[in-house]
Amino acid sequence: MRPKVLLLMTCCWVPPARFALVLLREGCDVDAVCPPGHVIRKVKGIGQAYPYNGFQGSLRNAILESRPDFIIPCDDYGTSNLYEIWQAELRNGDPHKLAALIARSLGNPDNCHLVTERGRFLDVAKQLDILIPKTDTLPPAANVKSWLRTQSFPAYLKADGTSGGVGVRRVENAEDAQLAAADLSRPPGMLRALKRFLVDQDRRLLLPFLKRVHPSLSLQEFIEGNEANAAVACWQGELIGCICFEVIERTEALGPAAVLRVIRHPQMESAARKLVSHLQLTGLYGLDFILSATGDAYLLEMNARATQTCHLVLGDGRSPIPALAARLAGHDAPPAKTVTELDTIALFPAEWLRDPQSTYLEAAYHDVPWEAPELIDASLTPNLEQRLRFKQGSQVLEFKASVQARSYKN
Q1: Cα separation of 170 and 172, whole Å?
Q2: What is the CATH number of domain 226-339?
């Protein structure tokens, strides 16, 4: 019997559609809960796509209707919602067995939630002898000014519950940090929440806006070096798949990666193995690091969700989704062939959107889903914000035409 997976997403980013393609290829049935207009609806073979309306109830209803064997959250807000549903169902005696399903999908949901609290999570990592930068949780607002004057700068100020660089500020001194802290600790404003809702089809700010949520902040030591990350698959505390990358290009200064170099890094893999085992995690996760000049890997944070490179298949032990799909079907993953021998990967559509003339589109392995031309077309259809960034509409049409021409050649 084919296991059914429910992909859970609260914003309209492309990677979950890639996850669906691999899960389908690996013998899973796939449903999705997502905002209207998500490109995952263009994936052939997808079962039901349930609408996400910005509120937790729509996620719970989708789970009840889909009746999946496993849930994969594809963004941090989705993971937080799952945790809250898990708590509520336990309080009510779990009549629909939703709490049991969420625990099967995440491992220990309490520990999974811990991952979203940067300061506490890094304390756990330090106890496991994982190298981390000095990180402190900001004290109450009344004491922030004097406390900041005792800290070292430059540093990074980070807000819990954010991702993709949205809640991160580099600060050069105590005054910078105080201003950034005042900004990051505010609940999202009405205009920002409406813009994200209407323009980006992103409903994640609705509840924080309505509930006036003030995120916790942490101050993290700046370490000179190159950014790196790991895409991780795990099953009941066992690491079953891990790909390590060094970041070459980002879509923007602190945004998601667009070009990556595949690396072997025992220290990163060891950190992943220790955390997965200690926290008894199941599912797909991501770890962010800084590689110092000496080559040491400093753990910055862990993403309690599937990250954008989880769909890559780079051989045995380095193919996260196939490894997870095999465990869902009740067996170990069969031998996996790598999709490329090149060590540099340009992610689609991120690198196309960053620079249509990028040399990496030819020199690196360009990770385009050539087998799914409808998905390619939908991924390159700009939203309102992206259309406003182009000077002329003809640029959009030419851009899409060039990709479509290549897709049919392949």
Answers
A1: 7
A2: 3.30.470.20
